[in-house]
């Protein structure tokens, strides 16, 4: 079933019709979980060798999977379009840059302000204090955040899988499918020593379920941004970076994470209501000229 994403394109969609997101999902889970299982079974700490090596290799599962699948297709047009979407800043535009940058800092700021007003317990803000005391660490830390999450994940999730899904389902359904797999992909991290999931959230707790629900809802925002920036993978990378970087600088307590999920859900509902659920876009989506 071809949706409006395809029907509105001047450029042939044939290079995307053969994309199989389900094969991508199987490959991604197999690659990532293979490396992460070694860490779990061996009891390694993810921040010590060899745990950090296997952890990084697992993190790049989505990237390895999409590189393999696109290379296997032997389609030069696909590669050209793929890399254009990764590096083109022009596709995003000033309005969407602002949206990407402001959403999560604003959500965290609102929750923190509300906590101050109500006298609710606040986190320690250790990372923010450390960076303020040592400004030279800001750039290396930002690069670290970018490499350990946004780049290796989004090159696959939005850079490959989302297009394949949207040639078969509408944008909303595609978001839920991708978000569910993305959420499921994280589960081994709850059993790896040294990860945020293992040390702070804990498997089976309320925080665990909030974390599992998060990617499913947030995927709606990703698709909304991705489709409104002419399928910019770079926009997804930057949005993912903003989410992670904000979480490091303005961390949330368990109650704060509940409020955050509520606000994200409300925002997602507004987007679905005000946009066409078939595309979650303001205008017809066009594949970049190739």
Give the ordered list of helices and strands.
HHHHHHHHHHHHHHHH
Structural category = mainly alpha
Helix content: over 70%
Largest sheet descriptor:
none
Q: What is the residue-averaged pLDDT? A: 90
Number of separate structural domains? 1
End-to-end distance, in Å? Answer: 24 Å
Strand content: under 5%
Counted by DSSP, the helix tally is 16
Number of strands: 0
pLDDT below 50 for ≥5 consecutive residues: which ranges? Answer: 1-14
Rounded Rg: 19 Å
Question: How would you describe the shape?
Answer: globular
GO molecular function: metallopeptidase activity
Protein name: CPBP family intramembrane metalloprotease
Keywords: Hydrolase, Membrane, Metalloprotease, Protease, Transmembrane, Transmembrane helix
InterPro entries: MmRce1-like, Rce1/LyrA-like_dom
List the helices and strands and how they pair.
Blueprint: H1 4-7, H2 14-17, H3 21-42, H4 51-59, H5 61-73, H6 76-87, H7 93-118, H8 126-133, H9 138-147, H10 150-154, H11 157-166, H12 171-185, H13 196-201, H14 206-228, H15 233-249, H16 254-274
Helix pairs in contact: 3-4, 3-5, 3-11, 6-15, 7-15, 7-16, 11-12, 12-14, 14-15, 14-16
Question: Could you explain how this protein is built, in words?
Answer:
It holds the Pfam family Rce1-like. One of its GO terms (molecular function) is metallopeptidase activity. The chain has 290 residues and is an all-alpha fold. The protein has one domain. Helix content is 71%, strand content 0%. The chain has helices at residues 4-7, 14-17, 21-42, 51-59, 61-73, 76-87, 93-118, 126-133, 138-147, 150-154, 157-166, 171-185, 196-201, 206-228, 233-249, 254-274. Helix 14 runs parallel beside helix 16 (254-274). The longest helix has 26 residues, at 93-118. The radius of gyration is 19 Å and the shape is globular. Mean pLDDT is 90; it is low at 1-14.
């Amino acid at each position: 079933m071809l949706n409006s994403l395809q029907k509105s394109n001047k450029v042939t969609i044939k290079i995307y019709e053969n994309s199989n997101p389900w094969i991508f999902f199987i490959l991604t889970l197999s690659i990532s979980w293979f490396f992460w299982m070694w860490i779990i079974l061996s009891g390694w700490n993810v921040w010590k060798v060899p745990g950090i090596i296997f952890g990084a290799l697992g993190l790049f599962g989505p990237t390895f999977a999409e590189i393999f699948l696109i290379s296997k297709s032997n389609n030069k047009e696909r590669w050209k379009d793929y890399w254009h979407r990764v590096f083109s800043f022009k596709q995003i535009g000033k309005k969407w840059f602002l949206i990407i940058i402001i959403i999560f800092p604003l959500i965290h700021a609102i929750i923190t302000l509300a906590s101050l007003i109500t006298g609710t317990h606040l986190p320690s803000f250790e990372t923010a204090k450390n960076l303020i005391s040592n400004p030279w660490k800001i750039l290396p830390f930002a690069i670290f955040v970018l490499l350990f999450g946004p780049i290796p994940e989004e090159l696959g999730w939005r850079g490959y899988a989302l297009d394949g899904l949207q040639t078969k389902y509408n944008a909303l359904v595609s978001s839920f499918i991708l978000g569910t797999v993305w959420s499921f992909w994280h589960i081994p991290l709850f059993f790896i020593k040294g990860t945020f999931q293992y040390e702070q959230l804990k498997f089976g707790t309320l925080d665990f379920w909030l974390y599992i629900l998060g990617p499913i809802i947030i995927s709606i925002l990703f698709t909304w941004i991705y489709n409104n920036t002419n399928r910019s993978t770079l926009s997804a990378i930057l949005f993912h970076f903003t989410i992670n970087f904000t979480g490091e600088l303005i961390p949330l307590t368990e109650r704060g994470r509940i409020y955050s999920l509520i606000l994200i859900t409300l925002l997602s509902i507004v987007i679905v209501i005000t946009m066409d659920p078939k595309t979650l876009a303001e205008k017809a989506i066009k594949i970049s000229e190739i």
